[in-house]
Specification:
Distance between the termini: 81 Å
CATH architecture: Beta Barrel
CATH class: Mainly Beta
CATH topology: OB fold (Dihydrolipoamide Acetyltransferase, E2P)
Mean pLDDT: 83
Helix content: 10-25%
Largest sheet: 7 strands, antiparallel
Strand order of the largest sheet: 6-5-4-1-2-3-7
Order of helices and strands: HEEEHEEEE
Number of domains: 1
Structural class: mainly beta
Strand content: 25-35%
Number of strands: 7
Radius of gyration: 19 Å
């Protein structure tokens, strides 16, 4: 005969969890713009036709913002990354963006990014 289990209520949450990248440490979240998840990186590498070549227009390392201009569509894309993409990307450098999975490739480095803004260029 088994004894009945007492139901233990979940511990109350006293504070909201915050990602450590806000404090300059490594990210503890896999939300868009934070740490790059292994599965996210693998999915991006498994779909090579969806990478878009771009040139870095500007960066703001304090805010974590990278502004790109795509090569093929001449679209301006503003990205946010708390994991250091703005420190690695330099204006004028070629990069690649995987729009579906939110991955920015800067050389051999990969970053999880959140698209803040995307403006298609006006065509004449």
């Amino acid at each position: 005969m088994s004894s009945p289990h007492r139901h233990l209520p979940p511990a109350p949450v006293r504070e909201r969890a915050a990602c450590m990248c806000v404090h300059g440490d490594s990210c503890s979240s896999f939300a868009p713009g934070h740490a790059l998840h292994l599965i996210q990186a693998r999915l991006a590498s498994a779909t090579p036709s969806e990478w878009v070549d771009a040139i870095v227009e500007s960066t703001d390392a304090v805010a974590g913002v990278v502004v790109l201009r795509t090569v093929s569509a001449t679209e301006q894309v503003e990205l946010w990354s708390g994991s250091g993409a703005a420190h690695q990307a330099t204006p004028g450098a070629p990069v690649a963006l995987h729009g579906r999975y939110g991955v920015l490739a800067v050389g051999s480095l990969r970053f999880n990014v959140a698209v803040s803004r995307s403006n298609a260029a006006q065509r004449r």
